Amino acid sequence: MRAAVLHEIGQEKLEVLDDVEAVGFGPGKVRIRVRATGLCHSDLSAMNGVLPQPAPFVPGHEGAGEILEVGDGVRHLKPGDRVVLCWLPACGACPACRRGQTQLCLAGFMNAGTPNFRRPGGDLFGFAGTGTFAEEVVVDAGCAVPVPEDVPFDIAALIGCGVTTGLGAALNTADVAAGSSVAVIGCGGVGISAVQGARLKGAAEIVAVDPVASRRESALRFGATRAVPPEELADARQQVTGGEGFDYVFEVVGRSATARTAYENTRRGGTLVVVGAGAMDDFLQLNMFELFFDEKRILPSLYGGGDVLRSYERTIALWRAGRVDLAGLITHRVPLAEIDEALDQMRTGTALRTCIEI
Questions:
Q1: For residue range 56-96, what is the model confidence (pLDDT) as tens digits?
Q2: Cβ atoms within 10 A of the Cβ of 340, count?
Q3: Rounded-to-integer distance, Cα 64 and Cα 87, Å
């Protein structure tokens, strides 16, 4: 089968090969024919070493497809079922799951260290235990979440990561208050989803901040009330809040510099939500006095900060009702053979989400 492979961390291009085999099928596993997958910035971060990932590997973790085969013991799935891939499944038994914090379950991360592809040259890993830039993938049955037949594969793929992360940051982690002021720093697919989440919660002012003009224009279409480049954030803060700072600021870049900017633009007693996935050696510096005196809440948000399965269901319900726009997030489409074009679109910021059709 075909799959896009990164041979070494730091390489900027992927090689599409046709001699890759999905391996590991057996009890408790499922084999999935991937039909659509989104390119998420986390894929780039794994490729360049910002996020830890063994190589060589097949990137991709935001995917959807149909079940080809189920292993022994799998009762909730059957061949032909339409599913979204969940890269962070909950085991249901660990302390985090028992506390109701299923997004903190580490069972899914354990899969990332086991190769789930092979080619004549040796084993390949799948990013985040999945690897959706491939025609087929074998995963634990818990990673395959059934979705209704009326949900297209491209829409389902978005729900698998970016939309769930962005919406959940606003709906679950921040629980944005109606009538509040919000700033979202970084307006790719995840940031735009946070904008939509803030709009759903009734935020009065939503300021989108991004250096790319096309993304700022998109943010306005998705519910932002203003959209500014980073150098104009201070002016927007003055105009919207009288200089006090925003009630909620979402950092959706994953860098300490933008997190610091987000902190400084959060009002005293306000909430900074850290959504972007950053590097382990990139440290955010805060002094002890400001932490004490300003009483700003700093809330990290992993995968939307809530029960993933419930978040999937909620997103589908909102999409059906026309309350969130998912199709509009897909600004570009490319076949797997042109995956490097999708990487360029992500790096330059010209795409919110590129759908890779497999």
A1: 999 999 999 999 999 999 999 999 999 999 999 998 899 99
A2: 15
A3: 11
Q: b or e along 178-206 (b: 16 or more beta carbons within 10 Å of the residue's beta carbon)?
A: eebbbbbbbbbbbbbbbbbbbbbbebebb
Cα distance between residue 166 and residue 208, in whole Å: 13
Q: Nearest Cα to 102, choosing from 118, 86, 83?
A: 86
pTM exceeding the 0.85 threshold for the entire prediction = yes
Asked if residue 3 has pLDDT above 90, the reply is: yes
Query: Which residues contact residue 135 at a Cβ distance below 8 angstroms, ignoring those fewer than 6 apart?
Result: 1, 2, 3, 33, 34, 336, 358
Q: How far apart are the first and last CA of the chain?
A: 11
What are the residues whose beta carbons fall under 8 Å from the beta carbon of 183, sequence distance 6 or more? Answer: 206, 207, 208, 209, 233, 236, 237, 246, 248, 249, 250, 262, 265
Q: 184 forms bridges with which residues in the sheet? A: 208, 250
Length in residues, the chain: 358
Taking only the tens place, the pLDDT of each residue in 53-63 is 999 999 999 99
